[in-house]
From TrEMBL:
The gene is LOC114078272. Residues 67-342 form the KIB1-4 beta-propeller domain. This is F-box/kelch-repeat protein At1g57790-like. It holds the Pfam family Beta-prop_KIB1-4. InterPro entries: F-box-like_dom_sf, F-box_dom, KIB1-4_b-propeller. It comes from the Eukaryota. It comes from Solanum pennellii (Tomato). Residues 4-45 form the F-box domain.
Length: 376
């Protein structure tokens, strides 16, 4: 049998150049170390944005992750022990923010190259609130994270996270910082934050009671300026609904900021729910919502815990236009993951995942969408 790992480097690079689909290219890099070295951006012409993968933990061996390709309707199994026993939040350009449940260790992780960037631990935020012994009691968690730029391309970026628990707070970190910079938001969002997004030089948060807030973080060398400028952008009294049945997402679409509202309306016996979506553009200048969007056209939207994006479905096979693909778990209704597609035209819903239903692991976030991406 051929020893694929010991093929000449120029031959491996030649093979890599002939791979045209990013799923195949990522699988190519997972063969062995020498093949992973050849699986670089220089050897692949990337069409962006790509159709995101749905990342699922292998139910038989948690050292592996399964990446479901919607366009190819198949699962790729990748050895990724770095995320074992961790909460995984999908962020910019395929990066994950991982939080180890037992220790609070935090990292940025690029799952397809396994490159890791160490972050200050969760304990640093907990100690700020004097939550001694938090780790043993599961007193809270990082449930949202967002990057201002792609760490694969630059070291000039900011990571913002949300600590969910008895003390709600935002915090940010940039490369070179020893610790998190804390942002106290109790006065703004006593009901919790549902979404975070970076848009046109500012971070935006959406609270569960209908408030959109902006945050402008000062640069690292601007000590004469306030470290943070905040502004209430929109406050929507009519959307102060029961958080059990509403989930919010912020999406950047062609330079516009969109608010997506996911309604899960309980049925008579409270065991199932009826799903409905509404989409609005946020007028940042006027501080109001524009008229509700009635169609997405050729676009397809992908929503998951901590992540929202879109693609032009006309460029890809296997993706339906004018649909919202969502992967989430409604804790108040069932223990199974909801992996479905919502037809924006008629409101019908169908499952997009061909396999059997997946149980949601305890204390782990719902499966993230991960944008296929390659390191520089």
């Amino acid at each position: 049998m051929a020893d694929w790992a010991n093929l000449p480097n120029d031959l491996i690079a030649h093979i890599a150049n002939r791979v045209k689909v990013i799923e195949d290219f990522i699988a190519f890099g997972a063969v062995c170390t020498s093949w992973r070295i050849a699986a670089t951006k220089d050897n692949f012409d990337l069409l962006s944005p790509q159709v995101p993968f749905l990342m699922l933990t292998d139910e038989h061996d948690d050292r592996y992750q399964e990446f479901y390709s919607l366009s190819k309707k198949k699962v790729s199994r990748i050895f990724l022990p770095e995320v074992r026993g961790s909460v995984c939040l999908s962020i910019k350009e395929g990066w994950l923010c991982t939080v180890v449940n037992d220790t609070g260790e935090m990292n940025l992780l690029h799952p397809f190259s396994r490159k890791k960037i160490h972050l200050p631990s969760l304990n640093a935020l907990l100690n700020y609130h004097d939550r001694v012994g938090y780790e043993a009691n599961h007193w809270g968690s990082i449930d949202l994270a967002v990057l201002s730029a792609n760490p694969s391309l630059t070291s000039d970026y900011v990571l913002m996270v949300n600590l969910y628990g008895p003390d709600i707070c935002l915090a940010f970190w940039r490369p070179g910082d020893v610790n998190w910079t804390h942002i106290d938001v109790d006065n703004y969002f006593t009901s919790g934050i549902s979404a975070l997004l970076y848009h046109k030089g500012k971070f935006y948060s959406m609270s569960r009671c209908g408030k959109v807030q902006s945050y402008q973080v000062a640069g690292p060398n601007t000590s004469d300026q306030p470290i943070l400028k905040t502004r209430l952008v929109v406050e929507m009294d009519e959307y102060k609904l029961n958080p059990r049945v509403v989930e919010y997402y912020l999406v950047e679409l062609s330079g516009a900021l969109l608010l997506v509202i996911h309604f899960a309306i309980p049925t008579r016996h409270d065991l199932n729910h009826i799903t409905k979506f509404k989409v609005y553009e946020v007028d940042i200048t006027r501080g109001e919502l524009k008229e509700e969007m009635k169609t997405l056209g050729n676009l397809s939207m992908f929503l998951g815990h901590n992540w929202a994006s879109y693609i032009d479905s006309s460029k890809f096979s296997g993706v339906k236009p004018n649909h919202i693909y969502f992967a989430d778990k409604w804790l108040n209704y069932c223990s199974y993951l909801d992996m479905s597609a919502y037809n924006f035209e008629d409101g019908k819903i169908e499952s997009f995942y061909p396999g059997p239903g997946r149980r949601a692991p305890r204390l782990i976030c719902p499966p993230p969408w991960v944008m296929p991406s390659l390191m520089k």
